[in-house]
TrEMBL record:
Residues 148-233 form the Quercetin 2,3-dioxygenase C-terminal cupin domain. This is Pirin family protein. Belongs to the pirin family. SUPFAM superfamilies: RmlC-like cupins. Pfam families: Pirin, Pirin_C_2. It comes from Pedobacter montanisoli. Residues 13-121 form the Pirin N-terminal domain.
Length: 237
């Protein structure tokens, strides 16, 4: 029998530093909730807003798969591997922190904010050589699960060291699609960027999160025009 959980938008941890407004679905920085540590391998889901010209100075990471998805504006990246890049809306960035990496993230536009998702997953391989990748993603196709991340470097989207599959979807009102799990014992976490969805008989609204596991597939119905990120991740790792 399936199990599920809803994390309402207004139940998330919140931080307001003036230049940065961040909402934390799971425990992060000054927000700690022992019942909201992770969803399987999904450890961090931050919904960030950074004002023009501001950002995160150089800081370290290790043994974590880190994914950034701009929703509005641009994000400038620099790291200790020598990468300098601007990640634009309609792109996805991934870093395997592995044995250790330093990086910084800034909003390069002085007059325009950047809104982006920062996501961390526990890896299935530790102490790998750090790596970086950035790709354009298809965010225009309607009524499909558009894959943007997987464990396979030959598959659609970026790849990471984890048996995880991400899809970014735009569903028109009334669309109903069945998502099939790629790997047994994986669960699905859906973060609703805008709109209203019905999943497993439950309704979620903009910026709500919905996790479901012990399933082989899940039916997702758009009650209104909706955009959402679907993250399939191992529940045990």
């Amino acid at each position: 029998m399936s199990q599920s959980i809803i994390h309402k938008a207004n139940s998330r941890g919140a931080a307001d530093h003036g230049w940065l407004k961040s909402y934390h679905t799971f425990s992060f920085a000054g927000y700690y909730n022992p019942e909201r540590i992770n969803f399987g391998a999904l450890r961090v889901l931050n919904d960030d807003f950074v004002t023009g010209g501001m950002g995160f100075g150089e800081h370290p990471h290790d043994n974590m798969e880190i994914i950034s998805i701009p929703l509005e504006g641009d994000l400038q990246h620099k790291d200790s591997m020598g990468n300098t890049a601007t990640i634009k809306t309609g792109e996805i960035q991934v870093m395997s922190a592995g044995t250790g990496i330093y990086h910084s993230e800034y909003n390069p536009n002085p007059e325009k904010p950047v809104k982006f998702l920062q996501i961390w997953l526990f890896p299935n391989k530790r102490n790998v050589s750090p790596r970086y990748d950035q790709q354009k993603i298809d965010d225009q196709t309607k009524n499909e699960f558009v894959q943007i991340l997987s464990p396979d470097s030959n598959d659609s989207g970026v790849w990471i060291y984890q048996d995880a599959w991400f899809s970014l979807s735009n569903f028109e009102a009334g669309t109903s699609k069945n998502y099939k799990i790629h790997k047994e014992d994986n669960g699905v976490y859906i973060f609703l960027l805008e709109g209203s969805l019905e999943i497993d008989g439950k309704t979620i609204e903009t910026r709500d999160g919905f996790g479901i596991w012990d399933i082989a597939n899940v039916e997702i119905k758009a009650l209104t025009n909706s955009k959402f990120l679907l993250m399939e991740v191992p529940m045990h790792f």
